[in-house]
């Protein structure tokens, strides 16, 4: 059975690189590592720069940079919108690294050890949505087969995989944490919409529709002398 069949057994799904000559993920290059940790690097550099600026200003007796920094941090933290914005983007960072870890642990990488590249991840109406570039040797069906593992790794309820209608190497992984919040589109949905993306789960689920079939009357199935109440068949006719 194919590894991409979600109903396959545990050995088939996880034995892709253990049985057929593959190898574990290789160490990524410097540019790829910087891209994966770009948000953390930018935050660390910004925090270091602000800290140095405030310390130097306080030594010179200038309190304005310190007051500006306190207001810039305290005002968003005091509002519900600010706290929600921060929490949503922290979950984006967590999900990005957990998806990459899932790719490494489940064998969703090329035989040369290259992991799919997470181009972008943003908050969504129900959690987070990641835009992923599948490298040669991987595809959206691989992510769909391991959607349960992705959801578990991201501490979420579910994970839904969609692929682009035209570009097969582009896919989205939406991490579902709760019910969808009504409102205008946010994140990747606002920029790319949903018309060009096809959910693999919707393709896999059969279209089951209930059809009402009229049943024949008893008088149409039995002869007049076989009716439980003789004469009613002739009256009805």
Please provide a written account of the structure.
With 237 residues, the chain is of the alpha+beta class. The chain contains 12 helices and 5 strands. It has helices spanning 10-14, 16-19, 30-36, 38-59, 64-78, 80-106, 140-145, 147-153, 188-192, 200-204, 218-221, 232-236; strands at 117-123, 127-133, 158-164, 170-176, 197-199. It has a 5-stranded antiparallel sheet with strand order 1-2-4-3-5. Strand 3 and strand 4 (170-176) form a beta hairpin. Helix 4 (38-59) packs across helix 5. The longest helix has 27 residues, at 80-106. It is globular, with a radius of gyration of 29 Å. The termini are far apart. Residues 1-21 have low confidence and may be disordered.
């Amino acid at each position: 059975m194919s590894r991409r069949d979600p109903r396959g057994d545990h050995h088939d799904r996880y034995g892709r690189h253990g049985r057929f000559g593959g190898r574990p993920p290789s160490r990524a290059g410097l540019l790829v590592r910087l891209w994966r940790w770009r948000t953390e690097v930018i935050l660390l550099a910004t925090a270091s720069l602000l800290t140095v600026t405030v310390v130097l200003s306080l030594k010179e007796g200038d309190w304005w940079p310190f007051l500006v920094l306190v207001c810039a941090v305290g005002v968003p933290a005091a509002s519900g919108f600010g706290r929600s914005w921060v929490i949503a983007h922290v979950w984006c960072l967590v999900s990005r690294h957990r998806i990459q870890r899932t790719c490494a642990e489940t064998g969703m990488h090329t035989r040369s050890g290259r992991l799919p590249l997470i181009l972008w991840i943003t908050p969504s109406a129900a959690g987070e949505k990641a835009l992923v570039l599948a490298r040669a040797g991987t595809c959206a069906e691989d992510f769909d087969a391991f959607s349960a593992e992705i959801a578990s790794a991201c501490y979420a309820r579910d994970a839904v995989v969609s692929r682009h209608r035209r570009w097969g190497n582009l896919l989205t992984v939406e991490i579902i944490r709760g019910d969808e919040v009504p409102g205008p589109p946010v994140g990747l949905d606002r920029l790319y919409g949903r018309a060009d993306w096809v959910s693999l789960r919707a393709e896999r689920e059969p279209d089951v529709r209930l059809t009402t079939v009229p049943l024949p009357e008893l008088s149409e199935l039995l002869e007049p002398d076989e009716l439980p109440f003789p004469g009613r068949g002739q009256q009805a006719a």
